[in-house]
Design goal:
alpha+beta; two-stranded antiparallel sheet; 7 strands; 7% strand
């Protein structure tokens, strides 16, 4: 069969390969896998190799080995481009998508499903459309997008439901009942449970045993939730007379108990099936049940009953008992006679195995700890070196930044000194006053850089400390004996960057200076000024109020101080307004919208 095959006989090849695949897929993976690979290696005709690659890929996916399946399916897909039909390419794309879904590689799965969907439209086949939608449902469920998963599962059902008695109707109904049960969607679960119950009520005893979904639907992990689910399915199936469902669920639950070393529980699950099957002619199902009971009794060291059910299996066969079956029966008889001796040997072997396992585990743990310790030590050394380098870099940056602030401060002080010298040589009092005001403005900026130079924080100024120092210096330079102004400060402590604090400081300097120059007459006493600076919502609010004679009705808009404050307010996206106090004096309010708050 493996010699060259004519392209005209493809349908016969497909049929023969399907029969061979059914036989191979019933074998354990350790036996079937080498046979598939042998077929692939020996096949001289590329068409046969393509079919075999697809069968092996599907077999590996069904046996929880999607990573192995992907390589064979990709090779098969390449061959199908020249050797196969559109149906073959469609099948490879869907199989690859399913393999990627099991590996949680949703993007790659969706890429193949989109290609397969366009092929399904071209094929105009109900099965193809339903298959793509079902796989998309699985893909979206794998990434927990349950809204999309529900949409595609229902699309798959709506497509398949167009065929009145589709052979996979029971499978899709079972999937939807299980899915909506896990999702907690009681309404949809109830709807599809009713459809599933009606479907089983119409089935006849002669329906093939394999029509129900098997390993790819049932979760055989030994959790309390799974065990309860299988018990509920068995109970409901028994009440419905759904023997197929009861049979599969009982077998899977018994497998769970056998894996967990509870053969008695497995026997209790399987016993009710004997009564259910006695009234039927389901010979194949009886053989499967008796074989499983034989295994369960053997695991429970009840070799007498194990031998009994093995003989019952033998009696049901149409053909002669194989040599393998004879050997199994003989082994059970020996085990039954030598039960006590075997128990002792098993206990000794178990003790040795446990000792070897403990020693091996200790060695592996010590090895892992040693490797981890060495890696962690190297990593810590590297991190320490990087930390040291970063600290040195930061220190160097801070030194440079401090030096910069120091030089800027010195430059401003030089300017201030020059202004002072210039004012000493002037006779005009107004000119002297203008230069003095310029000195105050420069001093407000000197103070900023001086604080940055003297503090560890090199990028921000504390508003409370800065406002107190700036106000004190302004008052010291302007007040004369007998004309003292008492002032109070209410400043919230915030850390602002240089770009924000500098214009605010200059505006405060102008406001205080204006009060000291213009707010009071010569004879005024009890002079008071109140300065506050707070954060309200997304704005900074600066208020300067006095109890002087108040602002004139028409403010000199062309004065340098007013122009300067408006320009600075514009930079801060701020509004500056002057209001008359409730009694005497003026309130200046600056609302700042643009600022950078560091802390």
């Amino acid at each position: 069969m493996l010699v060259s095959i004519s392209r005209h006989d493809k349908e016969q090849v497909r049929s023969g390969m399907d029969e061979l695949n059914i036989k191979l897929s019933s074998l354990p993976r350790v036996e079937a896998n080498p046979l598939y690979q042998y077929l692939i290696e020996k096949a001289k005709d590329p068409f046969i190799k393509m079919i075999a690659l697809g069968d092996l890929g599907g077999f590996l996916i069904a046996n929880d080995a999607p990573d192995e399946a992907i390589g064979y399916l990709i090779k098969g897909l390449e061959l199908s481009k020249n050797q196969g039909e559109i149906e073959d390419r469609f099948s490879f794309h869907v199989s690859l998508a399913n393999a990627f879904i099991f590996q949680n590689r949703a993007e790659e799965a969706l890429s193949h499903l989109n290609i397969a969907e366009s092929m399904a439209v071209e094929l105009k086949q109900t099965d193809a459309v339903a298959s793509v939608n079902y796989s998309k449902g699985m893909m979206y469920e794998s990434i927990e997008d349950f809204e999309q998963a529900t949409t595609y599962y229902l699309k798959a059902w709506d497509t398949l439901n167009l065929v009145e008695d589709h052979p996979e109707r029971g499978f899709y109904l079972f999937v939807l009942v299980d899915y909506f049960k896990r999702l907690g969607n009681i309404k949809e679960q109830t709807r599809f449970t009713e459809l599933l119950a009606n479907y089983y009520s119409k089935r006849q005893p002669e329906i093939p045993f394999t029509h129900l979904p098997t390993a790819h639907i049932f979760d055989t992990s030994a959790t309390a939730e799974n065990i309860k689910r299988y018990k509920d399915v068995i109970r409901v199936s028994d009440s419905m007379g759904a023997i197929n469902s009861m049979m599969y669920s009982s077998l899977f639950l018994s497998n769970i108990y056998l894996k967990e070393g509870e053969p008695k529980a497995a026997i209790e699950v399987l016993q009710p099936l004997i009564r259910s099957l006695d009234s039927t002619d389901r010979r194949q199902q009886k053989m499967v049940l008796y074989e499983k009971l034989s295994v369960a009794y053997e695991a429970n060291d009840d070799f007498k009953n194990a031998l009994k059910f093995k003989n019952m299996v033998s009696q049901l066969r149409d053909t002669l008992v194989s040599e393998k079956t004879k050997r199994n029966i003989a082994e059970l008889e020996v085990k039954y006679d030598l039960q006590t001796k075997e128990r002792e040997l098993e206990q000794q072997a178990a003790s040795k195995k446990l000792l070897y396992w403990i020693l091996g585990s200790v060695f592996v743990v010590l090895l892992i700890l040693s490797v981890f310790f060495l890696k962690n030590r190297k990593k810590n050394q590297k991190l320490a070196q990087q930390k040291k380098l970063l600290e040195a870099t930061v220190d160097e940056k801070n030194v440079l930044l401090k030096e910069t602030h120091h030089r800027v401060k010195n430059s401003f002080q030089i300017v201030s000194s020059l202004l002072y010298l210039q004012s000493e040589n002037m006779q005009d009092s107004e000119a002297q006053q203008a230069i003095k005001e310029a000195q105050n403005r420069v001093r407000s900026m000197v103070l900023i850089h001086q604080k940055l130079y003297n503090k560890d924080q090199l990028v921000g100024i504390d508003t409370k400390e800065y406002f107190h120092d700036l106000t004190r210096e302004i008052f010291d330079s302007h007040q004369e004996n007998g004309k003292m102004v008492n002032y109070t400060l209410h400043v919230e402590s915030m850390l602002l960057d240089i770009e924000s604090i500098t214009p605010i400081g200059l505006i405060l300097n102008e406001l205080i200076t204006n009060v000291l120059k213009h707010a009071y007459d010569v004879d005024d006493k009890d002079r008071k000024m109140e300065i506050s600076f707070q954060k309200e919502g997304n704005r900074l609010i600066l208020k300067v109020s006095d109890n002087g004679k108040g602002m004139p009705e028409h403010v000199r808009e062309n004065s340098f101080g007013i122009k300067l404050m408006k320009a600075l307010a514009k930079k801060l996206k701020a509004t500056l307004q002057f209001k008359k106090a409730s009694e005497n004096g003026t309130i200046a309010i600056l609302e700042v919208s643009r600022f950078n708050l560091l802390a």
